[in-house]
Amino acid sequence: MIERTALILGATGGIGGAVARGLAARGWRVRALHRRPDPARDPAFAWIGGDAMVATDVAAAARDAALIVHAVNPPGYRDWDRLVLPMIDNSITAAQANGARILLPGTLYNYGPDAFPLIGEEAPQHAPTAKGRIRVELERRLAEATTTGTARALIVRAGDFFGPQPGNNWFGQGIVRPGRRPRVIRRPGKPGVGHQWAYLPDVAETMVRLAERDDLEPFARFHMDGHWDPDGSRMTDAIRRALRAPAVPVRPLPWWAMRLASPAVPLLRELLEMRYLWQQPVRLDNRRLVAVLGDEPHTPLDTAVRATLAALGCLAERA
């Protein structure tokens, strides 16, 4: 088997790390670009010093790579206007030089209410938020690059991430509090409103399986179904089962308090901007994905939730 090389931007994040480990397990040579490289983080990767904001760093790290996993995001949802587009431009330039494929974890931010409730890959991207419009432009640049050069692009879009790897996500920032056994479970959405979740190991497995295919179009997009919670209770019930605490209360997320604190806490301001995705059913249509792969990797919800809570330090019994 010919050994293939992948460059990971964002290898210390949740989805970037999961994809990197999946590729390494399948025999890929994995390079991880980081401003402070430390091989002790994961000895299966070749850690390379550099910054995703520096075009020459990305180009050097991507030399001879067949795949560039663009899983890097500004920390804490901040500075998207300054960082997101320059970073994708650097990945595109590097991919053009090598004829590489860029693998991008997609977001729901691209879509507005005109695309709801069931979203296919060709749905219009009329983003109602600043971050969403930046993501729309990011994907537009990827699409253009596949028509004007040798780069290829693969976008895999899923619901809200949860899983045993660290990273910014609603599960560990809004539903439960890491590091302690939950005394209350928060519900960001309205009662009865469906919501879509995606278990990180399943997303990573899907991405790796697609990335290894040679029969995809130059600009390929796929949506995952993940775990659909039809009324908002399926996830909270799974958390209760994992805790073996059926009586732990479920209470609404205090959006009003987040709004009051948002001027002093930028993260809360950014989370508030995404509230519209919790106020109505929003579901991705995975029929194209199933047609290509035959099925979608799918860990049972109880197994996935328990692994996530254990990694967050939420399963310890009270002293």
Automatic annotation (TrEMBL):
Residues 10-134 form the NAD(P)-binding domain. It comes from the Bacteria. GO terms for molecular function: aldehyde dehydrogenase (NAD+) activity. Gene3D superfamilies: NAD(P)-binding Rossmann-like Domain. InterPro entries: NAD(P)-bd_dom, NAD(P)-bd_dom_sf, NAD(P)-dependent_oxidoreduct. This is Nucleoside-diphosphate-sugar epimerase. One of its GO terms (cellular component) is cytoplasm. It comes from Rhizorhabdus histidinilytica.
